[in-house]
């Protein structure tokens, strides 16, 4: 289900007043749910790697970051 499909429909009398707190809470709940699901999926994907393999992408990303920011090895 797409994120927009889970959002409550706005009625003709709904101008955003009074229910803002409820909507904010619902929005935060949906964000927490989506982030949790994303992290669970990433964990499942990475679970096939051993510790050394899992560390390689982090090392490569660190090198790229240093190169783009002009760090120790980047000009």
UniProtKB/TrEMBL annotation:
Q: Where do Basic and acidic residues bias regions lie?
A: 1-13
Where is region (Disordered) located? 1-26
**Identification of the protein by name:** Uncharacterized protein
